[in-house]
Amino acid sequence: MTSMDKHVAKYMVATGDASAEAVSASDDISKIVNSGDTQANLLQLIQSLGEYLTNDDGFIRAKATGLLSHVLSETNQSSINAAAVDVLVHFYCDRLSDETCVPKLLEGIDALVTFDNFKEKSAVTVSKMLFENVKTQSFPQTARYRVFSIIGSLVARYSSALRSMNNEFVFGFSQAMDGEKDPRNLMKAFALVKEIVVNFDISNHVEDLFEVTFCYFPITFKPPPDDPYGITAEDLKITLRHSLSSSPLFAKFAMPLLLEKLSSSSGSAKKDSMETIAECAPVYGANALLPDINELFDALKVEVFHATDPVLEDTALEAIHQVVAALSTTISSDSANDPAENALKPLVVECMVNLKDPELKNAKPAGRILRAAASASDPAFNSIIDAIMPILLRHHRETDLATQKKAVLDVLLEFLEASKTLYGERTDAKNDADFQTPLLGYKDRLWELFESATTASNEYNGLRLAGIKGLHVMTLMKNYLADNEVGLAVRTFTKILVDQNDNELQVKALSSLLSIAKTQQQQILDYTVPVLMDTMPASEADDKASAHQKNLEYLTELSSMPAIFDVVGIQLVSKFETATRQQPEQYIYAYEIIHAFDTILQQKTEKQDIGKWVDLVFEKLFGQCISASLASQTTSSILDDRILSVIASITAVIFQHLEASVQSEYINRLFDIYTKSDLSSLKLESDHTFKPLDASSPDAQKKTSTLFAVAVSSYSRTVQLPIASHEEFLDELVSAALSSSSCELQVIALAQLHGAIVNKWADDAVRNTYVEGLVSKLVPIAESNHAALTILLWTCKALVLMAKPIGYTITDQLITWCASPVLGGRTAHGFELIVGDDNLVLNRASGATLNLLYKQRFFNYCLPKLVENFKSSQADIKPNYLIALSYLLRNVRKQVLLNELPPLIPLLLDSLELDDASLKISTLDTFRIAVIDAPEIISQHVRRLVPALLQVAQHSKQMAVRISALTCLAQFPVSLTRDVLQPHSTYAIKQLSLCLDDNKRLVRRQAVDCRSKWYGI
Amino acid sequence: MAQTLINANPTVYSPSKTSQRILTFEEQDDSFEDPIDAQEIFDLIRSISDPEHPLTLEQLNVTQCEHITVSDETSRVLVEFTPTIPHCSMATLIGLCIRVRLLRSLPDRFKVDIRVRNGTHQSENAVNKQLNDKERVAAALENDHLLEVVNQCLATAGLRGQDTPSP
């Protein structure tokens, strides 16, 4: 007995073919076969199997066949020669009449047909035997799947050989597919239909093939709840649709049936039919569509006119579009009797009737239908325009009512859009001079209509809006407006921006300008930018109706184009300078200008676009700040805290985007200025010395430390800071901060810079020693010196970012301090600083070292300690822990939050009773998120939560809190199940009625929305 | 389908944007009190869907802000609405929708009258009587089918004249 015999015997005595023993035996056999001479080994296997393969018991035969098939599917197929494959094929095919074995045999054949040495002749044999002997649909799903898989492989590789049995093959396949029900098999079968249509001549069996395919239409499949195969109804629909649209031969059978399904009452069947028609129309062609065309258009038209659902309407319009496009492909010698044009006529006539009264409901859908049809082809466009334009223009002429004029313009707009779709946009590269829109003939007239609409002296915005839209589309159309005409449109839009006070018009005009800017930047630079700049006042005092705010908004939007920003940026900075100097006591106007500049920079993503502003910012903004700080009296508003913080934000984004060498150069200059009082790089001269880090300097100088801190904090690790040693410089910063009692801004700036350097310090051990020293120095003085806590907080943040143990040591100190009567409040709020994201320093953009999961680690570290301290502390201390906790909750990822939530719920409920509004809002927000994402947790607490939230909604002093509570309550009916809420709904609805009488309108509004959700339970 | 509609092709009015309430400083300040006014009532009912068309009562000009009278001190509201056509059999249903919306959205202290505008409907009196009879309204809402229709019409009411729900 050979080893092969042993394995085979082992396999045969094992239970079934999926038990552990059977699988291990068959794997062993596969390994043996694949080691050495595969073909010889295979022969040996077949010899060993011999008696089983011919056994009288069908199950033993099947099992043995299964083993062989399995081995074949795993075998190293290229080493089996043609003769052997041929023998195997015959062996397998001859036995196909043995029903018990068929599933196993199919598995083997499925493997064989993929073999390199499987020959064309065998392909024909396999197909013949398969169709002759196997009644596919009488076998289980897996076996049927094998059949389709075999056919698939055969069609893919041997279609030319199989064409010798063309009709037999097509018929055989349609028989095999007939009655298939499993979605997995159908996906395969539908795809095969298309393959077969492409590769074979189906003309003799069109009807057979069509019938076995179309019977599945429309698909009403619902995947089982756990959806093990991941096949959706949509997948099936799309594959089926591809097979129906695979051949024009299907047209004569498909069209009547599709029409019939169009009138179906089921929305999904209708949609499917329309989508199928849209896909089939180009393939079936005009001749197939023409017989039923009127009926078809009628059905589609109804869908648009009586649309209940915008999706269905769009689908119907797409179908109309495709059908008209298909009709137009017929070539007709006689244009008067062009069948396509005749077919279109009734549709156009009906739309014309509806357009007679453009204000009625049906006018809009009529316009849409015409747009769908007109955009399909040049002849359709021409014939529709010829028919409709005169009517519309006459209408417009004859009416004086703004609403009617607007309705006409809306329809005209549809044509402009259609023309844009069909004849191309300005940006299209292809230039086809012959293919021109017939609307060219109406250009002047249309221009006049839309342009006069924009200036209509009427309260009615709709008309003006239509005017803007019209001009806009005209600027986008290819070969339509000349450049100077586009310029006129730009002027019109700009005028609306500046003159009109209506937001809707302005938004539309701005978006039009933005899209023009993409192709015609110069027009915007020549006209829009100067107008917007000029209409901004020099200072706030000259400002009428605060026009500047809008102008700044527009400039911000337009500056998304780099070339426009290049011009706008410089002008904004110089406007800002003027504004700060003209009115030193007023900061708002200057603030808004510089804020706009900041906003634009923050929106940029290109390194180049941002970095290049460093010169301007350094020279102008830094220079201004420092010279103002040196002046003996206030000459500029630039040192206002709010303006300074914007400049800091600009500094941060620019320094973060500098090349290392440029960054190093500027940082060196800043060190000269701030530590050596050397102002030469700014070309400033002053009687006073600039010594911002000196305790005796005036606050004005100290404040400017922000700029230094933010710029230097962004240093890239490759840049060498001009300092003697880390320790020394950090000590300097600390002592400057500790002695700067009067200027909070400076303390924070220095603490930030200190933190950033600690964070980027490469030498871990030295840093540890330094920080330990720092902590032992600062902790004792924290109660007496304000700055000590600030420095510790930022140091702690720097270390927590890297998840360093020493950071957690400081955290322990902070948690203890939460209970201190002096430091408690500040420390608790300090948690926001540690775990929140700062937008200037110690963030990813500024190059800080940060551990991906630092927030989560910090959260996990602090949570138990905070909860424990909360439980054991006095009532007047408790709020501090809740505040610290709320900052943690706000900043941790949702998933982590939800995991930790259940034990926290009682705490959170307690915090709703405290007076701190921001704490309450944060807690309410946590609850809201929990209701959405962890309804099962919240469900257990509904009994306590609902009354507590209602209490807050009714009795909180601040409206923001009441609104938050109502928003949270409104989420309950959306996310929780009915059986959970039902017992509470009467109570909730009754209590909510008190909120309806709130004295604040915004709260009432939220209460109404919330209550109507509870009514919906 | 088309034949069964009472008014298949009504005139569509585009809502005027000027009728949107602009958020004022006072409204955002805790120390001011905002009385309930006509605009607020209009906002509550303008986006109720018409039972026949996927259009709102505002788009069909059934409700207008000018036809709402409110007195916050005496807790009274009068809403007058205009059916699209004088023989509109949907008038009662529309009125019922408005009634239910206000029942659910106004404090209990208000007495709400809902009427068809003078001379805009054939059986004005009958409709008005039905709409302002507490018991008949209550009885109507006992009817599950009717309640479902009303709830469907009210589903869009929260839009308050906007195209999309505000956050």
TrEMBL record, chain A:
Matches recorded under InterPro entries: ARM-like, ARM-type_fold, MMS19, MMS19_C, MMS19_N
MMS19 N-terminal domain boundaries: 46-306
Major localization listed first in the record, in broad terms: nucleus
Entry keyword annotation includes Cell division: no
Signal peptide positions on this chain: none
Gene Ontology CC entries for this record: cytosolic [4Fe-4S] assembly targeting complex; nucleus
Cellular compartments annotated: Nucleus
Keywords from the named record: DNA damage, DNA repair, Nucleus, Repeat
GO biological process, one term: protein maturation
Entries under Pfam families matching the protein: MMS19_C, MMS19_N
Domain MMS19 C-terminal span(s) in chain numbering: 552-973
Record keyword DNA damage present: yes
Transmembrane segments: none
Biological role: Key component of the cytosolic iron-sulfur protein assembly (CIA) complex, a multiprotein complex that mediates the incorporation of iron-sulfur cluster into apoproteins specifically involved in DNA metabolism and genomic integrity. In the CIA complex, MMS19 acts as an adapter between early-acting CIA components and a subset of cellular target iron-sulfur proteins.
Record family assignment: Belongs to the MET18/MMS19 family.
PANTHER family: DNA REPAIR/TRANSCRIPTION PROTEIN MET18/MMS19 (PTHR12891), MMS19 NUCLEOTIDE EXCISION REPAIR PROTEIN HOMOLOG (PTHR12891:SF0)
Protein name from the UniProt record: MMS19 nucleotide excision repair protein
Protein source organism: Umbelopsis ramanniana AG
Automatic annotation (TrEMBL), chain B:
Pfam family, one: FeS_assembly_P
InterPro entries cross-referenced by the UniProt entry: FSCA_dom_sf (IPR034904), MIP18 (IPR039796), MIP18-like (IPR002744)
Keywords: Chromosome partition
Domain MIP18 family-like: 39-114
Domain of life: Eukaryota
SUPFAM superfamilies listed in its UniProt record: Fe-S cluster assembly (FSCA) domain-like (SSF117916)
A biological-process GO annotation: chromosome segregation
Family: Belongs to the MIP18 family.
PANTHER family for this protein: CYTOSOLIC IRON-SULFUR ASSEMBLY COMPONENT 2B (PTHR12377:SF0), CYTOSOLIC IRON-SULFUR ASSEMBLY COMPONENT 2B-RELATED (PTHR12377)
Protein name: MIP18 family-like domain-containing protein
Native source species: Umbelopsis ramanniana AG
